[in-house]
Amino acid sequence: MQLPSVLVLNGPNLNLLGTREPAIYGSETLDDVARLCREAAERLHLEVDFRQSNAEHELIDWLHETRTRVDGIVINAGAYTHTSLAIADALSAIAKPVIEVHISNVHKREAFRHHSFVSPVAEAVIVGCGTQGYVLALERMATLLAAKLPVKSAVEVSQ
Ligand code: DQA
Question: Which residue of 27, 32, 132, 134 shows the fewest CB atoms closer than 10 Å?
Fold first, then answer.
């Protein structure tokens, strides 16, 4: 049986997690976040494709490339959250459920972080929960996808 597939997309500077402003973003690295996501995915019976890029066009290209095979998108677009209409347009074009994540509570920070181009195209937004936000997003995504996926027959379930 094919598991529902979720693209977990990370934007600029998130490759520096662990050393980047630890008072704000904590001490876990991006590899630690990827591991957290893979563990959650296994528990939730999801397949996760975890990626990071500092380039806006690469994030958009990945959204285009995976659009027919992913069932949902979890995105921390980093600073592109606050600037990129292009990423928001790509997310809209794909028409799959999107959950926006921010490690820090952006609403407690500078005013320029309060606006998000991603939020209007997201089903849910998780901020300020640290890296646990990614796990919470995958849990919510599993619920959303289970509600949309065709119900399996009793025979399939017992196999
Ligand atoms: C961030 C918040 C953004 O404002 C910032 O530019 C980031 C990280 C977060 O996860 O808290 O790069 O998305």
Answer: 27
